[in-house]
């Protein structure tokens, strides 16, 4: 198994790589282009962006310049909080699609569960899916309660839920909920903000396997069957983060890292997010 061949199968049969490159806070232009090009040259086939990141166009340019056949790639983007609503979501998708320079987006996500809006917006994503404009649709930062609410009216169950997931926020109940509903959980910020790389337990496990703390953290997520999208713009780290398919954490390792959970977030809790300032 390698980064190029390792993939999960979504509920609709679409293959999604277990490991991808996240580009949140990567500056548009050369910074994100070089990161994406490095990732694709390394063997990554999944790139995760969003309209909010303001770098879709640069991601698209890197994809075109890479020479990697489009059918080998898995491109994810998301609609932002001020793009909710049925017609608004369809228009947002077209903007993102054109910036990326692709005919079909592999995975389109609702970025945050804007109260009172996400069910109508989901209807637009269902239309995009039925029309063949996206290969898979899903959500991001949804709790099990948000998913329950959505499923009351949804014709199509989200295929992916992308959430904050790392040892300090081991969302076990949400993971089990998604698994029970055939929703693939995907984790953002798998390395924390750098502090997890310095955790004594993580460093000890890394030494034991002859790996880096970052590789251990990515491997931990993968062994929980969680897709991982570590973000980096440093070529060496992008390459290093991909070297996670040649070792396995044992039960003791997994239990130790699971035990680091503090229900601690680096981002906002979806129920505490300031939606009013982001939907204007």
UniProtKB/TrEMBL annotation:
Q: Could you tell me which Pfam families the record lists for this protein?
A: Aldo_ket_red
Show which residues form the site (Lowers pKa of active site Tyr). Answer: 78
- Oxidoreductase found in the keyword field: yes
Q: Which residues bind substrate?
A: 111
Record carries keyword Transmembrane: no
Report the PROSITE patterns cross-referenced here: ALDOKETO_REDUCTASE_1, ALDOKETO_REDUCTASE_2, ALDOKETO_REDUCTASE_3
For this UniProt record, the keywords arranged alphabetically read as follows:
NADP, Oxidoreductase
- Protein family: Belongs to the aldo/keto reductase family.
Q: What is this protein called?
A: Glyoxal reductase
Organism equals Marinococcus halophilus
């Amino acid at each position: 198994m390698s980064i190029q061949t390792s993939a999960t199968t979504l509920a609709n049969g679409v293959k999604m790589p277990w490991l991808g490159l996240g580009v949140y806070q990567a500056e548009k232009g050369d910074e994100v282009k070089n990161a994406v090009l490095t990732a694709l040259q390394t063997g990554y086939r999944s790139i995760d962006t969003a309209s909010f990141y303001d770098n879709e166009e640069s991601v698209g340019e890197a994809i075109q310049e890479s020479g990697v056949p489009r059918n080998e790639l898995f491109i994810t983007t998301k609609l932002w909080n001020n793009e909710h609503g049925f017609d608004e979501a369809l228009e947002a998708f077209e903007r993102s699609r054109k910036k990326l320079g692709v005919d079909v987006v592999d995975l389109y996500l609702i970025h945050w569960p804007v109260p009172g809006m996400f069910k109508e917006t989901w209807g637009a994503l269902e239309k995009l899916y039925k029309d063949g404009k996206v290969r898979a649709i899903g959500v991001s930062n949804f709790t099990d309660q948000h998913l329950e609410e959505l499923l009351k009216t949804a014709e199509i169950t989200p295929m992916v839920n992308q959430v904050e997931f790392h040892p300090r926020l081991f969302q076990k109940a949400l993971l089990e909920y998604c698994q029970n509903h055939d929703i693939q959980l995907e984790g953002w910020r798998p390395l924390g903000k750098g502090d997890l790389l310095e955790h004594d337990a993580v460093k000890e496990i890394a030494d034991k396997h002859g790996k880096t703390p970052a590789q251990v953290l990515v491997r931990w997520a993968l062994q929980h069957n969680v897709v991982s999208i570590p973000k980096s713009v440093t070529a060496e780290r992008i390459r290093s983060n991909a070297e996670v398919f040649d070792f396995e954490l044992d039960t003791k390792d997994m239990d130790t890292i699971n035990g680091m959970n503090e229900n601690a977030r680096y981002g906002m809790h979806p129920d505490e997010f300031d939606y009013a300032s982001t939907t204007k």
